[in-house]
Amino acid sequence: MVESLLADRSRVDDPHLWERARELDLDLERFESERRSAAVAARIERDVESGLAAGVADTLAIFRDGLAVDLDAL
Question: For residues 15 and 3, what is the distance between their CA atoms, to the nearest angstrom?
């Protein structure tokens, strides 16, 4: 899923997430249940706050050893 999202960073909304999940043959009920769970919501909130503090300005950002990875170089 991560590779798919990185390959097309402009299409990360619900319809495209479902399409990707189907293409990857994920358990769609589990996918939806887990991504809507309280645990995932808390993780997202924590990641958003951390990203804002780190200066992240895009939906997809990756850090390695505390440094932002240039996604365009991947």
Answer: 17
Report the Cα 12 to chain-centroid distance in Å. 8
The residues, any chain, with a CB within 8 Å of residue 4's CB and separated by 6 or more, are 20, 23, 24
Task: Give the integer Cα–Cα distance in Å for 12 and 64.
Answer: 22
pLDDT(46) > 70: yes
Q: What is the pTM of this model?
A: 0.60
Cα 15–18–23 angle (5° rounding)?
125
Give which of 64, 40, 43, 41 is closest to 54, Cα–Cα.
64
* 3-class DSSP assignment, residue 64: strand
